[in-house]
Design brief:
Largest sheet: 3 strands, antiparallel
Structural class: alpha+beta
Shape: elongated
Oligomer: single chain
Strand order of the largest sheet: 1-2-5
Radius of gyration: 19 Å
Distance between the termini: 23 Å
Number of helices: 3
Order of helices and strands: HHEEEEEH
Mean pLDDT: 95
Number of strands: 5
């Protein structure tokens, strides 16, 4: 499902809301999650999962074409851990 499909589904299930308002709500939620993670905070949505940021250390990698050693800088990467409810639902529990 992509963002526009999510917005459309929410708008269809809530005919009392304008689609532009639903779009603003969805975008605000995503922006708040992004902003919190950019500050290094963890975002937990009970039953769904938790978004966090993990630090990857600098390392020496390899160029797959040439086999040459390449320095890879340290970086932050997003990480998602599923919640118990989501995990159970995916596994037929």
């Amino acid at each position: 499902m992509i963002r526009s499909e999510l917005i459309q589904k929410i708008a269809d299930e809530n005919p009392h809301l304008y689609q532009r308002d639903v779009e603003r709500i969805v975008n605000t939620i995503f922006e708040e999650i992004i902003d919190a993670m950019a500050e290094g905070n963890r975002v937990e949505l009970r039953g769904f999962g938790a978004f966090s940021v993990k630090q990857r250390d600098a390392r020496t990698g390899r160029n797959p074409r040439t086999g040459e050693a390449v320095h890879v800088e340290a970086k932050c990467v997003p990480f998602f851990k599923t919640g118990k409810l989501l995990r159970e639902r995916l596994n037929g529990g």
